[in-house]
Structure formats: structure tokens, C-alpha cells
Automatic annotation (TrEMBL):
The keyword Lipoprotein does not apply. It comes from the Eukaryota. Coiled coil: none annotated. The lineage of its organism: Eukaryota, Sar, Stramenopiles, Oomycota, Saprolegniomycetes. Belongs to the DSD1 family. This is D-serine dehydratase-like domain-containing protein. Keywords: Lyase. Signal peptide: none annotated.
Amino acid sequence: MTSWIDTPAVVVDEARLQRNIELMQERATRHQVNLRPHAKTHKSVEIANRVLAAGAVGLTVSKPLEARKFMEAGFKDITLAYPVVVPQKLDLTLECALAYQVTFNLTVDSVYGAKVAAESAAKLDHVLNVLIHIDVGYHRVGLENDPRLRELVQFIQQSPSLKLIGILSHAGHSYGAKSREECIEIAETERLIMLRVKATIEALGSPISVVSLGSTPTELCRENYEGITEVRLSKWIVDLPKLRPGNYIFQDRTPVRTGVSTVQNVSLTVVATVVSSNAKHFIIDAGSKVLSADTVRGSGDFGGACYGLVFREEDFDQVTMEPTTNEWVNPSTGQPSLCFEIKKLSEEHGWVAHAPNAGPSASPQIGDRVVILVNHSCPTVNLANALFLKGDTLRHIQLISRGCCQ
């Protein structure tokens, strides 16, 4: 079906995509939490509409320009989960939100950022909903229980143009978990930190309606949702938890290798063509302009230091778990098959190692098409002009926020 596509191409399996959307929504509904998925993962109107149709209450975005793109596309409930400290960026975004009548929530983690938000909202005679970003162990942005938290809460309380509606976290260190058990521990630690911070803020006189958590690995394995109101994945609703995963729709090697998902749930792959071969590698037409430079963690040595795993195109749909060696058994035939590591990237080329003790003759040959199980789907999408949705037919999905890093 993909024979007419020019490679390299980012391909999404429609059945797997829809199943992932429905399963995460069912999980959120069962635990009485709202789902606010990240749009940075797919960057498309079509997939945003799919998650909302399934029951998500809004979108999460990562940068002001991305927020404006989705506002202009007609989406009415958006959380910008990023500290915006440049006044012009926030001015433009808040003006856009008001022009398109969007419910817009902003995260802050400093008095400086809160001042920018307050001044921007005041200029437009608007009261802006804000959530305080909490550090739960990733140590990227956010506060925990320290004097700066009290100072920030008090500043927001005293600002007539800001309304504190909740707290938000991102357990990004879960992507480095080496096992499902470690990921479960990270998820529970995140929850407990958030409940402790919620109690601290409420003791200062500000009720917290939204407790918003979000990372795909933690939400694929979380066991306790008590006290959570949103997974990002979701819009806030009073007294309900919220979830904000994003990568759950596509998935990639990270949740598979950690043990919280399987290859059968991975809906996004890259199709490439073998363009050359030598004694050590065969060369594909997908390089660093297509594939993420991220590597993966997790148990096992095979696949741990590479930029993706390569399968023959005709084999990939039969792969259930990530192979632990070059050789794996195809369940439909009972016969051994091979997969290969992408060991090096240049701009337009991927260097794929031949299987040890097999040699070049056992590898895909020049002109053959291969499927790449990618390490990280989000940057892969950001590098693409469009996605190909593979269902009963094969068609384009246009991206509206590719490269929206401002």
C-alpha cells in the first residue's frame, strides 16, 4: 500500500492510532479524570479532532506560536504548558485567545513570569487563568515546596488580572525509567508531591481546582489516581483530576523498551529505502533530517545505543515485542527474521549495521523498503512536512504547527 509514497515518509497506522486514543480515554473516564492531550505530538487538526471526539476536554500545547495556530484552527480550550517570560509573545497569544473566544490557561513557575502574565492580561482588561508548574523530579522547570512557591502564590493572589486555578507537573524523567516498576514509582511520587503542594497552597488561602499531571510513560502505568484532576491530555473541570499525555497516540520505542507498552501499540513509523550498501552497513534515505537524535534507555544491550530499529516492510506488522537480539521469530510464519540497528546518522543518510554473523547478503538490499521503529515520535513529526495515514486508503494529514518553536 505504501509503494507510491516517496521515502522517507512518516506513516501512521490508522487502526492503531484510533485504538490508542480510545484506550487512553477509557482509562481516564474509568478513573474520573479529564484528558487534555498534547498537540505538540501530532501538530494536526485531524488528530486533535479525533481526541476531542473521543472525550478529551481540551488541548495542551508547548509554545505560544503553537497555541495561536490551534486557536486559529478553531480549538476552544487550550493550556499552554510552558513558562512564557517574553511580553510580546504572551500579548500576541492572549489577543488571539480573546479574538477567537478561546478558554486559555497559562503555566507559570516564577514571579517574573507571573508579572509578565499579569501585565499582558491587564492591558486587555482580562483575568487570565494560571497554573503553577511544579517540579516532581525532572528538574527542568517548576517549583516544589520552597520559599519561592509562597512568594509566587502571594503575588498571584494580589494580582487582579490573574486567577490561580491549579497546579501542573511533568514527570519527564519517566522516559529514562529502566522498567515498568520504576515508572510506577515515579508516577506515585509525582502524585504525592502534587497533593502535598496542593495542601500547601490551599493553606495559603487559594483553592486548587486543577491537579494536572502528564507524561505518557506514567499514564500508561499509573495505578493510583486519587487526588488527580487532569491528565494532559485534558481540560480542567472542578473537582476532577486531569491527565496530559501526548505521545500515547503514536508511542515509540521508549514505552515499549520500558515495558509499559508493546510494538503492536506503536502507530507511527518511518518508511525508508535502502540506497547503498557496504561491508559494515546498509544505508537508508532517512537521516538526521527525518529521525530524532534521541537514544533510548531501558533493559538490555541490543538497541540501547542506536537511533531506531529497522525491519523489513513485510515483517513489521507481525512484531509484538522489541527484539532483544538481531534475530526474532515471526509469529505468523514461525520462522526467524532479522531486525537491525541504526548506528549513525548524517543529514540525509542512516547507517544501519548488518546483523553480526549474517553479513550483507542477509540484510535488505538496495531498492528495498524498510520500516523504522523510532526512538522518539514527537521530534520525528516535527521534522516532517506531512503524515501519511494508513487505513483502508492512504492519505495525507497536514501539519499546522510544524517548527512552531517560538
